[in-house]
Specification:
Blueprint lengths: L5 E6 L6 H12 L3 E3 L18 H6 L2 E2 L12 H15 L5 E5 L3 H8 L10 H14 L1 H11 L1 H6 L5 H14 L17 E8 L2 H17 L2 H7 L15 H7 L5 H24 L5 E4 L3 H12 L9
Parallel strand pairs: 1-4, 1-5, 2-3, 2-4, 5-6
Amino acid sequence: MSVKKHLISIIGPTAIGKTNLAIELSKKFHAPILSSDSRQFYKEMCIGTAVPSKEELSAAPHFFIQHKSIVDRYSVGDFEREAMGFLKSHYLKNDVAIMVGGSGLYTDAVCKGLDKFPEVPHEIRENLNESLVNFGLEKLSDKLKELDPKAFHQIAVDNPVRVIRALEVCLASGKPYSSFLNQPKKERPFLVHTINISAPREALYERINLRVDLMIKNGLEEEVRGLFDQKKLNALNTVGYKELFNYIEGKITRETAIEEIKKNSRRFAKRQLTWNRKNTEALVVNYENALEESMTYLNKVIPTPQHTNS
């Protein structure tokens, strides 16, 4: 492309303020916002995934939010393909787009491209999913530790989607899943400017706890009860949902479920922080001054005439 195109990628842990920053930057650059949050894709999940409010959605154009159903098969590869198609069309008339989300793999899929893996026979995936239902996640995690210790220590082994994906590659190829990682990345027809929002741990944990309390107040329990019959779907094996499923089944008290949501949200934030630290080219901004610090940087790397394209 003769004129450079720009993708502003906003990353950071849950509850840090990514949506607010994205909306403010969208206004300044007249740019659409693409969500790379793998749980906000699903229309049945709203409160527990912190989908932007109606006011936030109306304040800026948003895409890839609640455009799928929890019963749909939708992979990171599907998202990469659809997001790149959107950007290709968008960049025909505009120079700037914004992407925001807490799912590092999905963000990286657009910014860097996915590693290429071997084809996996359908029966391998089906067998692993049956094993998950019949024997639980721990047994699958133990199998991954046996076949690929490196991957076992690198991926989120409490996430069945990640564990099954790693195992199916191991079984289909006869090689460790980790051996397919970190391949040379694809060239992208746009420049990526990554902004990583940070906060002191105490402040972050307080924001997480307040968000969970607000979710409960706004009706998270009712939302989860409405999805109870579908609780075995992978999309619903998510913080905020699985803990309340346990409460509804009588396994724990309501108070314990809420505390578990807060604890597991903090653990999720830690994993996000670990993932984001790998992006050494990102601009790290303080959550209290995120907009000012971001604009100081972006005004230097994105030419002024492109700010007002529409």
